[in-house]
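sanity check this:
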Amino acid sequence: MKELLEIKNLSVSFNTLKGEIQAVRDVSLSLHEGEVLAIVGESGCGKSVLCKSIMKLLHDNAYIKSGSIIVDGVDITHYGRKDMERLRGRVFSMVFQDPMTSLNPTIPIGEQIAEAVRVHNPKMKKAEVYERVISMMDLVGIPDAEDRYKLYPYSFSGGMRQRSVMAIALASEPKILLADEPTTSLDVTIQAQILDLLKSLQKKLLTATILVSHDLGVVSRVADRVAVMYAGKIVELGTVEDIFYEPRHPYTWGLMRSLPSLAKKGQELYTIPGMPPTLINPPKGDAFACRNEYALAIDYEEMPPMFKISDTHYAATWLLDERAPKIAPPVGSIR
């Protein structure tokens, strides 16, 4: 498959009154045509910052410290605002967590989708734009599209608002879609519908997707590959089967053990001990060491490299070093 996005050794920091926050640290990832790559981890681990770095939607106090972002063979790391405006929409679009922060409450839904169409097709006739909007509303599962064209966001349910946001994001047929926890604000039933829609659209349009989530259940439903992120770094990367059936990093084990579906009746649900470290002064060595019951002495001294387990599976843990003791994962499959 064609490689659409390649991130090489990317580090992103924020300047604050308390010091430099190292939000993303030496991250390397790739995204191929037609695949869904999920990025999972606890809140604050750098998932959203990574996506916003690709889109260049970072706050003024943030900056790319090192590394590169290559989109469709072109390095966009140092692109300015005007250059990025040409890429946003056509090359990549983003779906945010809360649809009401993305929609304008004073403009009808149809007009907001139409605006996204016109921005990248300024010569398209009014009738063609209207037909395009109706087709997009139908595509994302908004019923009675012609009747709902003139309705405002407050007339839509949470699920319909998220469908509208997806229609806006897909209106210009982007090659890459970044979905930042698109189902978090929705109830469980609607979450399932949106996830099924996301998978269906990905198959129909062949849009490569980066899905950000802290919910492993969501990931198992739609993803092809999974990147597990902790304290600004990718600690494990593999196919869905690799991560869910053969996890190798202790942090991934902890995430899996925290799933309610793996809990035994009558027993307390497992939680990872401790708290994530501050990224103003990240700890020496492996950032997860202080929370890792399997930590080795070297974990407190030296950051582990990314060990290759198979052609598709990698993990950054000293437990994979040939000199380390052999420890069986304390988890099983969730599917």
Observations:
- The CA atoms of residues 4 and 73 lie 7 Å apart.
- DSSP finds ten helices and twelve strands in the chain.
